[in-house]
Design a protein that fits this description.
Number of strands: 0
Order of helices and strands: HH
Shape: elongated
Strand content: under 5%
Radius of gyration: 27 Å
Number of helices: 2
Oligomer: single chain
Amino acid sequence: MDYGTLRGLFALLILALFIIIVVWSYSKKRKASFDDIANSIFEEDELKQKNKSRHHDTDSKQETNNV
């Protein structure tokens, strides 16, 4: 087997892997999972805002004895 044949087989292998990854990522079975992952960033933002508002409420309730 010469170098040109080896390079050709390697190119076919890479092409096959690319096609497999594209088919896997666009399959209907994976769509719901990818949508959940994509929307998870918004859930994190909502949790941070809730925690900030709770923290702000406790800060405003504290009394200080500064003279």
